[in-house]
Amino acid sequence: MKVIRIHDKWKKSLIIVISIIIFIWSLLCFNIESTGAHTNKTIWEIDRFIQSKMEKNNIPGAAVAITHNNKVIFTKGYGKTGDNTSVTAKTPFAIASLSKSFTALAVMQLVEAGKVKLDTPVEDYIPSFKLTDTKGAKITVRQLLNHTSGLTDKVYPDMTLNPQPNSLEAVIKRLENVSLAVEPGKEYHYNNPNYQILARLVEAVSNEEFSTYLENHIFQPLEMEQTFNVSTTMELNQNPEFPSGHYFLFGIPVAVDEPNWFISGPAGIVSNVNDMAKWLISQLNGGKYRNEQILSSESIKSMQTASSPTISYGMGWNIGKTEDGKKQVQHSGILWTYKAEEVLLPEQGYGIVMLFNSGLNAFVDYSSFTSGISKLLSNQTPNEPFYNSQMIEMFMVVLIIITIIIGIRKLKYIKKWEGKYKKRPKWRSIIYLIFSLLPLYILVFLPQLLTFIGGGRVLNIKGIFLMMPSIIIWLGITSILSLAIVIRCVIRIPKLKNSSQISNLKDKLF
């Protein structure tokens, strides 16, 4: 009995030692700082939540930062980069359209310095800014910030331009041949060139190159030491220290270079979650980080306020409410190989940023990460659907296999159609053949269809493929098979007519 008791004591001691080791190891893996409104238990739940969602959606790498008031309470990296190294809180990510709030803040700094007035036409600051449409002379700085300038993707589709501009001044030059879609100030239309024009305004007024201005007046004061701005995605692809992002091919992440796109102003910043945590703190503390006041609290408040009762966009931020009615300030960032989500909860004092090294995908709901974290911070349960992207991708694989089987079967048993063709009215056969090519019509006009569905955003076919490769492949296979079937049917029609005439002649003779 004595031996058993000694064994039990050693067993208990071993368990305690292992528990301590695990606890210390966990602290080394990510940073936790607990303050009153949240507990270590909440942070553990958030950590498990992120890991679970990444696994279900097969996301290769991501990083998160959470702040509360003026403190960082959680940062961590998950998964691998495109170079197969472990993601940490220091790993660089393209933050894409989260850059807009930085550009807006740069403009507001110039407003506070008395160098820019929000309701003055932008043409006063950039004399070379001349649109074909004379209404362009009315566009104000505020309207650019609010996306109410009258520019839309339909009149200036910046993502599909070929070649892409190579400077902010080149963007201004390209706009010379553009007419506005609507009168300035009348309607909201999210449009990246609005923020390219604003970046050029910063250069013209400050006499500093835009990237240099950001570095001197925002990044350095906030101690964002690893953050920088680029003009084009080609600069990302050519940077050996910046790993490639990913797109999803049937749910499998594939590392690939970002397509060429001029992004300075609306989407050009590269950062990490350590640096972005400092940005969150400044945004939630009236423009102040430690002893640096980068913008007045009044200006921060105006940036984070909707531009009108009917428009939910402020200045570089989307303004809305949480499910329980509290204010939420948010923005998403989208590239084809990188994605970013950022949320401010001013009433609770929380800031959340998640950066992903996988891009826009039709089946992955990236915003559900930050919305789930927000709920956990409020002691609520995240709304998790029973399905995930991997399940949908598996469905697409099955659908493609079924499509191929049905298509081959139709080609093999074309005589069944020939029999129906002889019996039914010819107009029905023509309608059948026309509608058989529906997948081909959808594939050919997919960019226009997505522009109509997506509120006017214009995408090129390469970007569409990276966003939904499984759907494009299915449409492509369906289109080829349906076209082959229609061609074979059309080729057979004259022969069917001849055989029908011969048959009728035989009936008359015999």
Describe the overall structure.
The strands form 4 sheets. The protein has a 7-stranded antiparallel beta sheet, with helices on both faces. It has a 3-stranded antiparallel beta sheet with strand order 4-8-5. The protein contains 18 helices and 14 strands. It has 2 domains: 61-377, 3-Layer(aba) Sandwich (Beta-lactamase); 389-509, no CATH class. α3 (99-112) packs parallel to α6 (192-206) and α13 crosses α18 (469-509). The chain has helices at 2-29, 40-57, 99-112, 141-146, 168-174, 192-206, 210-219, 233-237, 273-284, 297-303, 367-377, 389-412, 414-423, 426-436, 438-444, 446-453, 461-467, 469-509, and strands spanning 31-32, 61-68, 71-79, 93-94, 228-229, 245-249, 252-256, 269-271, 288-289, 292-293, 318-321, 327-334, 339-345, 350-356. It is of the alpha+beta class. The chain is 47% helix and 13% strand. Mean pLDDT is 89; it is low at 1-11, 20-30, 32-37 and 499-510. β9 and β10 form a beta hairpin.
What count of structural domains?
2
Strand order of the largest sheet: 1-3-2-14-13-12-11
What is the CATH third-level topology name of the largest domain?
Beta-lactamase
Count of individual beta strands: 14
Category from helices, strands and their pairing:
alpha+beta
Report the principal-axis shape.
globular
Rounded Rg: 29 Å
Largest sheet: 7 strands, antiparallel
* Highest CATH level, the class of the largest domain: Alpha Beta
Mean pLDDT: 89
CATH H-tier superfamily of the largest domain: DD-peptidase/beta-lactamase superfamily
Could you list the spans in which at least 5 consecutive residues all have pLDDT below 50?
A: 1-11, 20-30, 32-37, 499-510
Approximate strand percentage: 5-15%
Give me the number of helical elements: 18
